[in-house]
Amino acid sequence: MKITFLGTGGGRFTTISQKRMTGGFRIDGFAGKNFHIDPGPGALVRSHEFGLDPSGLDILFVSHAHIDHYNDIEVLIEAVTQGMTKQKGLVIGSKTVFERYKQWGPCISKYHKSKSDLLMLFRDQEVDFDDFRIKGTKTSHGDPTGVGFQLNSKDLIISYTSDTGYFSDIHKYHEGADILIASVLRPGKKSIKCHMSTDSFISLINKVKPKLAIMTHFGLKMIQAIPEKEAQNIKEKTGVPVIAAFDGMSIDIDYKNPGNFKIEYLERN
After folding, report:
1. Given its phi and psi angles, is residue 48 left (phi above 0), alpha (psi -120 to 50 degrees) or beta?
2. What is the pTM of this model?
3. Domain boundary assignment for the chain
4. 162 in the Ramachandran plot: left (φ > 0), alpha (ψ -120 to 50) or beta?
5. CATH homologous superfamily of domain 2-265?
6. Is 42 helix (H, G, I), strand (E, B) or coil?
7. 148 Cβ contact list (under 8 Å, min separation 6)
């Protein structure tokens, strides 16, 4: 199984400046399926630059209706459905991905919703597929319908926080995770409303105790602080292997032993 980052930037100003790419990330080979998670601006272009075929995706996931998470969802739907000629793929998202709720959404046109299966996911909702289960996880963020997820297969559990502030029972939504992927916008204690910082990620890791923790979705202050240094600090304080994701980073993970992994940096075409 591989997790490949087509963008490790997040927030308005990283997105505008492109100090880090904002194409989200892929999970390939989980329970035999290929996922693209939160395809923000550049997801399609970065897929091709790093040699990944978007038409080979099975599932697209959009956590909420902020542009750094959904911008390229429609063009990826076109890739999956072979230019809207095939009924193919599954799109999973928050309510605002598919419908308007107050000032948020929808993120996908009626036309683009017509050729793929759709799943509106809510926190605490569990949906079973043939070889895995997905559970919606709670977020505390600007879009009140936003969700993270936990993917649960026979041999591996992956959790993704998406954008969220830290709250008292956040760990309960990610309990049991072998791999914990989190949006960590700012370094140290410099948290802002609706987002996690290094210190809050430390608190989450200490309660979840994953075999591997991955931080991504960095704001400008995190980039300036150097995410790799923040990851080393988290590792020292938690005892858990922690990776600061980087654009074009591909992590090859032993499916049955996720603490065993190899990092590769893909060349851009």
Report:
1. alpha
2. 0.97
3. 2-265
4. left
5. Ribonuclease Z/Hydroxyacylglutathione hydrolase-like (3.60.15.10)
6. coil
7. 63, 136, 137, 138, 139, 159, 160, 161, 162, 164, 173, 174
Residues 6+ apart with CB under 8 A from 236: none
The pLDDT averaged over each successive group of 10 residues in the chain (269 residues) is 98 97 98 98 98 98 98 98 98 98 97 98 97 98 98 97 97 98 95 93 98 98 98 98 98 93 96
**Bridge partners (DSSP) listed for residue 132:** 153
pLDDT at position 97: 98
CA 82, 28, 31, 215 dihedral sign is negative
CA distance 162 to 67: 13
Residue 76 has which token pair?
A: 């990826």
CA-based angle 234:238:240, to the nearest 5? 90
Answer for the pair 110, 151: CB distance below 8 angstroms, yes or no. Answer: no
Contact 47, 35 (CB under 8 A): no
Instruction: Give the bridge partners for 233, in sequence order.
Output: none
Q: In this structure, which amino acid lies at residue 158?
A: I
